[in-house]
Automatic annotation (TrEMBL):
Alphabetized PANTHER family for the sequence: 30S RIBOSOMAL PROTEIN S20 (PTHR33398), SMALL RIBOSOMAL SUBUNIT PROTEIN BS20C (PTHR33398:SF1)
Single GO BP term: translation
Domain of life: Bacteria
Membrane spanning stretches: none
Protein name: Small ribosomal subunit protein bS20
Taxonomic lineage of the native organism: Bacteria, Pseudomonadati, Pseudomonadota, Alphaproteobacteria, Hyphomicrobiales
GO CC terms, sorted: cytosol; small ribosomal subunit
Species of origin: Methylobacterium tarhaniae
GO MF annotation terms: small ribosomal subunit rRNA binding; structural constituent of ribosome
Record key words, sorted: Ribonucleoprotein, Ribosomal protein, RNA-binding, rRNA-binding
Entry-linked InterPro entries: Ribosomal_bS20, Ribosomal_bS20_sf
Protein family per UniProt: Belongs to the bacterial ribosomal protein bS20 family.
Biological function: Binds directly to 16S ribosomal RNA.
Region (Disordered): 1-26
Length: 91
């Protein structure tokens, strides 16, 4: 347990930061899940719309330090490839 005033303050700050980060990570995962659900349903239009809204959310999470920049880019790239593959399968 924290004894000094500064240590107690740091635990409060960490708790606040953790809550914010958890919320941001959850929001990012929700957007990713919407894209994946649209892909599973086979709906290219809906998947493309979901991807366009998910991409800035994923990149924002990387800017805030929730995920690494390369991880965010990889997630966007793989989702985009799956959406593009869905279009090819429908054609």
């Amino acid at each position: 347990m924290a004894n000094t005033v500064s240590a107690k303050k740091m635990t409060r700050k960490i708790a606040k930061r953790t809550a914010v980060n958890r919320s941001r990570r959850s929001r990012m995962r929700t957007f990713i899940r919407k894209v994946e659900e649209a892909i599973e349903a086979g709906d290219h239009g809906n998947a493309l719309t979901a991807l366009r809204s998910a991409e800035p959310e994923i990149m924002r999470a990387s800017q805030k330090g929730i995920v690494h920049k390369n991880t965010a880019s990889r997630k966007v790239s793989r989702l985009a490839a799956r959406v593009k593959g869905l279009q090819a399968a429908q054609a």
